[in-house]
Amino acid sequence: MPRARLLLLLAWLLLGAGTGLERPFPALAGEPPTPARAALGRLLFFDPVLSEDGTLSCAHCHQPARAFSDGRRTALGRGGRPLARNVPTLWNVAFKERWLWDRRAASLEEQALVPLLSADEMAADPERLVARLAALPAYRAAFARAFPDERASITLANVTRALAAFERTLVSRASRFDRYAAGARAALTASEQRGLALFRSLNTRCFECHRLPTFEAPLALGIGVPSSDPGVGGVTGEPAQLGLFGVPTLRNVALTAPYMHDGSLPTLAAVVDFYRGGGGRAFGVPAERIDGQIRAFSISDAEAADLVAFLGALTDESASPRVPERVPSGLPVLGVEAR
Amino acid sequence: MTRRTPWLALLALAWLADPAAAEHVRVRAGESIAAALAVVSPGSVIEVEPGVYHEALVVDTPNITLRGIVRGTERPVLDGRGQLNDGVIASGSPFTMTGFALRHYKGNGVTTQGVDGVFLTDLVVDDTGLYGVYPVQSRNITVTHCTVTRIRDAGIYVGESHGALVAMNYVHHNVAGIEIENTNDVEVRDNLTHDNTAGILVFVLPGKVVKEGKRIRVHRNWVVRNNTPNFGDPESIVGSLPHGIGILLMGVDDTVVENNQVRENGSLGVAITRLAEKHAKKDPPLEPMTDGARIVANHLDANGSAPHQVILEGYGAGGDFGWDGTGRGNCADLADGAKPVGVPIPGCLEATAPAPALAHTGHAPAEPAQPLPPPDLSGAAAVVHIRGMRFEPRHVTVKEGETVVWVNDDNVVHTITSGKGTLPSHEPLSSPFLVRGQSFRHTFGEEGKYEYLCLPHLDQAAMRGATVTVAE
């Protein structure tokens, strides 16, 4: 290809005149992150000072090296006790409309309060937490920089605002799929391209719920993972919503095994097999708890492998934050062991 | 980087504006359409010669036209042979496809996903799995002159979209003929739907990002004898549909159903109902009632004679019109002979709901219509022209083994369909919809007198009772 032509092609790609797969991301919801708040949020995120007994930080479960999940079936809470649900990734958490598997949090700040205050998790007492932070000069300075208009800026609300600001920087939108969507056909292998077509097929119907460009949807749906977890119905008290969960993003999904709200499926291949068999229909889950679009479909094993390969092309950790070597409390930084 | 961007933008614009980048590509039988698609630039037209193509196509490049070359009864066929998943998946905007046949796919015939400007015309879609034509999450959609048959969910589906025209399609022997779902500003007109489980569904369903279906006008359609037992997946919503349904409105608002011919549907000719509570409660932001429906000036005749058990239980009997009594501002003007069942509905003269404004603003097709090639009259022992809403000549005589060719000279669509009087039988003559300039041919094997009619116009005396007499 002549150089001028290459330059033109490059320009075309850079400027977004790509393919129909290139869709605009939704606007960031909530308070825009300022650098000072995101920097404070990063320190808080990795600092076990947030937990009452100094043993847990956000990163204990949301480990950067595991795409902000923890590799376990379900999360480990206080004292090493297993919790009920699988740790969701934080990548692109800013683009969601509601948070947590059961969608009970209406904002990222509200979400942050849940593990912070839960007796099974960080079990923070708001007054003592504020006192612990106020006793550390580094935090006094960081809060003052992050919230310059507030005189008493170390508050529980501002802890969650700073954590949310940090989380809003965890944006993943530069995967090989995105390059392909922008027009670079060579960005996906032949197998991944076949997998993308399967993803968009009316045979598999993956795309109907895992929608471009976030590969999720602001919906509560039932797929019938066999479990006694009431899901959204446990929050709303509505029997028709028993067993419904929020649709998770598939961005960086290859890095966040195991899968489903209870971590019961160990690999993406197992997830594809689950859907191939008709989701929970194959496990005797009542039909009214399973969305009408979840139906058994027939694809070959090679096609299933293509689909898994495509999901691997949704990996992008280029915006990974730097993990602090030490945090203001002096407590050990958790959740940063090598994968 | 940012400093260079304006400079690069100029270069890119020059690239995009370069007419040499768009091209005309011709694909011949034995060649690969996918291979052509892999290298075309935005704005290109891919013309495909008649032949059978065992391919699944993906069109992500913007502004692509896939044009099948139709010569008489010959056209390119996309054949999945029961192995491939989808005929066409398109995401490039706009997208135009005409003149193809699609058959034997596992999932679907043609789907557009996230496309602004969808033009699907003159497609013959048979046995392509769950759906025939499936624009979803798209805008400004036109689906016309398509023939869609033997589909296990909806023949023509438009979902979670905005702005659609579904017109002059011939849709039969599917579970749902035409389904408009969670979509605003739609016109469904001049379609012929018969022998489906249900003819035309206008629905709002739960679990979708778009939560409403408003301002839909269903008019001048033929909705006849949709009594085929449901052969869909019983666990899907459409699989639970009772057979014998003409036009069903569920959960949608400000729908007009006007001037349709709705006949001989065994359960209900036209029905208005809410989305069932068990479904609605899964998705609380969704408003499950059908509101502001106006059913006016339809020809409802002989519906409800063999109602499905579900209809018997819900309405007590089958009929020309049924209402479950829910929703606000619904009305129907029924002729004296029409048989209503369920809750009595107010007439529209008493109701005050305004007729919905239609906001369909499709793009002009990317290419002007080409002059039609002359019809293929080779080997014809007799030629019948359909001209001025009549068959000319009305009666012809040929010998065994000879061929008759019909040519549509009218600006409206016609069919050549076997049938006695006003009763179509489809054997042995069953043409697709013929637009102006298209022809249909049949070679007659056995002696006898073959009567035929035009399905969309069988109410006109000149468009039925025509014959071909085959002598020894």
Note down, in words, how this protein is organized.
The complex is a heterodimer of chains A (339) and B (472). By secondary structure, chain A is mostly helical. Helix content of chain A is 34%, strand content 2%. Chain A is built from 13 helices and 2 strands, in the order H-H-H-H-H-H-H-H-H-H-E-H-E-H-H. Chain A has a two-stranded antiparallel ribbon with strand order 1-2. The radius of gyration of chain A is 21 Å and the shape is globular. The two termini of chain A are 41 Å apart. About 2% of the residues of chain A have low confidence. Chain B has 2 domains: 323 residues, Single-stranded right-handed beta-helix, Pectin lyase-like (Pectate Lyase C-like); 92 residues, Cupredoxins -  blue copper proteins (Immunoglobulin-like, Sandwich), CATH 2.60.40.420. In chain B, 56% of the residues are buried. In chain B, the strands form 5 sheets. In chain B, strands 1-2-5-8-11-14-17-20-23-26-29-32 form a 12-stranded parallel beta sheet, covered by helices on one side. An 11-stranded parallel beta sheet of chain B has the order 4-7-10-13-16-19-22-25-28-31-33. Chain B has 472 residues and is mainly beta. The chains are: A mainly alpha (339), B mainly beta (472). Chains A and B meet through helix 1, helix 9 and strand 1 of A and helix 1, strand 7, strand 10 and strand 13 of B.
Essential attributes:
heterodimer; A: 339 residues; mainly alpha; Cytochrome Bc1 Complex, Chain D, domain 2; 34% helix; B: 472 residues; mainly beta; Pectate Lyase C-like; 2 domains; 12-stranded parallel sheet; 11-stranded parallel sheet; 4 helices; 7% helix
